[in-house]
Each structure stands twice: as C-alpha cells, then as structure tokens.
Amino acid sequence: MSNLAADLTICDNEKIMAKNDEIIKFESGKAQPIERIENLILEIRGQQVMLDRDLARLYGVETRRLNEQVQRNAERFPSDFMFQLSKEEFEKWKSQNATSILDNDNRTSQNATSNSIKMGARKRPYAFTENGIAMLSGVLRSPQAIETNILIMRTFTAMRHFIGANAQMFQRMEIMERNQLALNTYLYDIDRKFEDSDHKFEEVFKRLDDRKNEIEKGILFDGQFFDAYTLIANLIKDAKVRIILFDNYIDYSVLNLLDKREIGVSATIYTKNIDAHLQADIDRHNLQYPVIDVQVFRKAHDRFLCIDDTVYLIGASIKDLGKKWCAFAKLEETTNDLLTRM
User: Fold this and answer.
1) Residues 321, 195: one domain?
2) For residues 105 and 155, which has the higher predicted lDDT (pLDDT)?
3) What are φ and ψ of residue 311, in 5° steps?
4) Rounded-to-integer distance, Cα 223 and Cα 175, Å
5) Which of 135, 172, 217, 330 has the fewest CB atoms below 10 angstroms from its CB?
6) How is residue 35 annotated by DSSP?
7) Tens digits of residue pLDDT in 97-151
8) CA neighbor of 35 nearest in space, from 93, 116, 90, 99
9) Is the dihedral of CA 92, 98, 103, 104 positive or negative?
10) SS in 3 state form for 89-126?
11) 6 and 133: one domain?
12) Could you tell me the CATH number of the domain that includes residue 250?
C-alpha cells in the first residue's frame, strides 16, 4: 500500500469526506456504460480479480476517489485482498485490451475499454480479489455502491458454482482423453500381438466405465489439485444426513466445498481457532447459503472427514490438498466413535 499512499494527495474537501466515511460521486451520480460484469473479471497471478478503474465505473465514482477511500481503510485490505499490477502485468493488460477493441464489434464495450486504457495509461492499476471486493462494501456507503457490490459478488458466486457443478463432467472428459491415448496404444499393439487384443480392449473399456466412486485409500501427490478437489467433492456429495470435518486450518474455500452437499445435509466444522477474518467469512456465508456450524476444538491433530457414519483420515488440511504429498484412508471407526470421545 506504500506506493498507493505516495500517489494520493488529499485536499481539504477530501478530509471532510473522510470524516463522513463516504465516497464522493460524480455530479451525474451515474456510472459510465460498461459491459457485463463477468467480462470485467480477469485472471491475474492465478486469481480472479477486478481492476480499480472498472470497479470505479461500476460504482459511479472516480478511480482516485475509490483508491483514496481504500487508503483510509488500509488495514482492511491486506495483500491477498488487493495488489498493484507489476509493470509486466500492466503492459500485458493494456495489450490484451487494445486487441479486444480491434476484434470487438460492440461499440459500447469498445468505448468503455478504450476509456479504461486512457484512464490508466500512466499509472499501474490495483487489482481486487473477491475478498477485497467484498470488503469494499464496508467502506463505500452510497446506495449505488451497495447495489453494485451485491451484483458483483453474485457474479463471482455464479461463476464458482458453475465450475463446481460441472467438476464431474470435466473429470470425466479428462479420464476419457487419457484412456483414448491408452486405446491408441493398444490398437498399435494389436498389429504386433493380435492374440492379446481381446484382453486389451476389455481393459480399456473397463477403465472408461470406471467412475472411481469406491476409492477407500490412496496417496495424493503434489500438483494433483484437481484430483484432490474432486475426491473431496464426491465424498461430500455422497452424504445423506451429515458431514463433520475436523480440520485445524480452514478458510473460505472449505466453506465453498461443503456447499456441494445435498439439501438437508447438515455440516459441522471443528477447528483449532476462529479469528476475526474467518468469523467474518462464516457470517457472510451463512447469510446466503445453508448454515455451516463452525466450532472451536483443540484436541484433534489429524484431519478427519465424516460422511454420515463413515470416517476418512485426511493427511493434510482440506484447503492445502495438492500442495504436498498426503495420504487418505477410510477408517473402521464410525462418526459416533469420534463424537462420544469429545
């Protein structure tokens, strides 16, 4: 935030605005015409973000006004909530938007993008993650800003749910692609060993039909982020009555994952500590989605995922699966065995 502080100059009128904790709007009180919100969500540094100038246009304010208000509330915007684009990222963004103008037949979108480039031709923009945008609702108080923030958060949620709802389809396509390669190999082997062809075809088609729903144990290696995600997601979707998670290190991504459970299935998390940021995530989640009960519990060292009466031992926190090697296994103990010892 130090670069931003150096760029901002606060005049006397702005000091009055700071006392009211409100953002000064354009005289018209209306945002500039813009394209659909989802078209403004970019992927930078592996995260979905929106730029300050696009957010400002949505809120109907000047970009510098938005950044000034963020500066006054700097403690609410850590580095994982917002960051400034590097010089390379900025140049790449300008290049992509310039190309988009040439290829786009929509005049409104062209003008909005062109204006966005002109507004930030000299100054590197700030990118806000989903958490950062949610935090803006606490510092921008105008009715338009509040209404716009709701629309933006709903857009992020819809995109995330679309990906989650189609996770199994994506996994199935990946499995079929891998097995198509295997099939080509087997077809090559037929020319050399015709007598083994029937057995090889049987093996290929068996693998194509294998949905891996009965996995009871295994190892997840580093880089297997998608495999880990689908493994836990499928277990959660199998629950009929309840889900209980013992995990000392959780964040909002774990809450999102538990939202894949069927309607009517209860969800409880026992974790070592609930800080202010996590509590805020929990409160926001429970206002919009089926309630997840999160409680403090400090007696568990390992991670346990209880699906109805079945208990799975997970070698790493749910949010970190795929980062390092870890094992998972179905245990003989039941959920009630754990609960009676609490």
Assistant:
1) no
2) 155
3) -115, 130
4) 17
5) 217
6) -
7) 765 544 444 444 444 444 444 444 568 999 999 888 888 877 777 777 778 878 8
8) 116
9) positive
10) HHHHHHHHHHHHHHHCCCHHHHHHHHHHHHHCCCCCCE
11) yes
12) 3.30.870.10
pLDDT at 233 over 70: yes
Three-class DSSP labels, 282-301 = HHHHHHHCCCCEEEECCCCC
225 in the same domain as 98: no
Quick: pLDDT tens for 204-220.
555 545 544 456 788 98
Rounded Cα–Cα distance for residues 140 and 17 (Å): 12
How far apart CA 336 and CA 310 sit, in angstroms, is 9
In terms of Cβ atoms closer than 10 Å to its own Cβ (0-12, 13-18, 19+), residue 257 is buried
Position 210 scores a pLDDT of: 53
Pairing mode of beta strands 310-314, 326-334: antiparallel
Do 131 and 254 have their domain in common?
Answer: no
- Shared domain for 60 and 80, answered yes or no, is yes
Burial of residue 306 (CB within 10 Å: 0-12, 13-18, 19+) is: buried
The pLDDT value given to residue 254: 95
Determine the residue type at 145. A
Same domain, 172 and 160: no
* Residues 331 and 245 grouped into a single domain: yes
Percent of the chain with pLDDT over 70: 68
Residue with tokens 């806000």: 128
The three-state secondary structure class of 140 is: coil
Number of domains the chain contains: 3
Digit-coded pLDDT (tens) for 156-172 = 877 767 666 666 666 66
Map residue 173 onto helix, strand or coil. helix
- Look up the domain containing 142 and give its range: 2-164
Same domain membership, residue 335 and residue 303: yes
Positive or negative, the CA dihedral 96, 98, 103, 108 is: positive
